[in-house]
Amino acid sequence: MFFNEVFLADATGFIVEFEKQNYIVTNWHVVSGKNADTNELLSPKTGAIPNKIKVLHHSNHIFGEWAEDEVYLYDNQGDRRWIEHPNGQLVDVVAIPFTPNDLIRVFPLDMALVNTDVVMRPAMSVSIIGFPFGLSSTGWPIWKTGHIASDPIVDYDGRKMFLIDATTRGGMSGSPVFLRISSGYTTSAGHHLIGGPLVTKFLGVYSGRIRDDIEIGRVWKPGAMVEVFLYGSK
Q1: How far is it, in rounded angstroms, from Cα 53 to Cα 60?
Q2: CA angle, corner 114, sides to 191 and 147, nearest 5?
Q3: Would you give the DSSP letter of residue 41?
Q4: Fewer Cβ atoms within 10 A, N terminus or C terminus of the chain?
Q5: How far apart are CA 8 and CA 26, in angstroms?
């Protein structure tokens, strides 16, 4: 995240295609530069809020190489370019429209992974995929492991999110969260699978810890993200 050429913070995002438009999905607090709960500035030393992001994409020429792209958060009139939930920052998820240039290649999230037939339960292991403190593996994101900490069927705090217990760090806001499992789970029909192929389920968008002193973080469910696309406004 940058204000002009001043670096402010690292963050994570991922690509979703909706109605033939590509979007970068991340958190409201990432693009606004403000705490979604308190409205406090996230960069109090500079007093700056981001006006652009620099994104590493796959190179369109050689797989495994990377191409940087700048995405501006405001248009020439100073209006924000991202779309957000009808409830605004109460749902800490946004989508930034962008058009890939000839130097980059995009791999949008397969939204069919939302429907993978696995019954989610507390204490199940999940993967949060992002860039802790900007760390990467030669450009590839880091996989961190956590566990579901609240009943995922229930909307925590009356909003479309659930909690995870994970040692996440700064830079991971906006990370996609997945379940990957091959045995020991139950389907919606009540079948118990002991062994089988590895399956992947998309669980939502990570948006940081509830408090700095506990390792309990929020994950916004896919339904919240879909509402941003369907009902979001500029």
Answers
A1: 20
A2: 75
A3: B
A4: C
A5: 16
Residue type, position 1, single letter: M
* Cβ atoms of residues 105 and 61 within 8 Å: no
Q: What angle do CA 27, 84, 171 make, to 5 degrees?
A: 10
Asked if 22 and 71 touch (Cβ cutoff 8 Å), the reply is no
Q: Please report, for the chain, the start and end positions of each structural domain, with discontinuous segments joined by +.
A: 2-105, 111-231
Question: 213: which 2 tokens?
Answer: 């002193």
Residue 204: strand pairing partners: 177
Q: Which residues of 70-90 are buried (b: 16+ CB within 10 A; e: fewer)?
A: ebebeeeeeeeebbbbeeebe
Mean pLDDT of 82-99: 97
Task: Tell whether pTM > 0.90.
Answer: yes
Cα-flanking dihedrals φ and ψ of residue 168, to 5°? -80, 165
**Contact of 92 with 32, CB cutoff 8 Å:** no
User: In this structure, which amino acid lies at residue 40?
Assistant: E
Residue among 145, 168, 153, 143 nearest 218 (CA): 168
d(CA 74, CA 80): 4
Residues 194, 89: Cα–Cα separation, whole Å:
41
Task: Assess contact for 11 and 33: CB atoms under 8 A.
Answer: no
**C-alpha to C-alpha distance for 213 and 139, rounded to whole angstroms:** 29
* pLDDT (tens digit per residue) in 25-72: 999 999 999 999 999 999 988 899 999 999 999 999 888 899 999 999
State phi, psi for 199 to the nearest 5 degrees: -120, 155
| 218: pLDDT strictly greater than 80 | yes
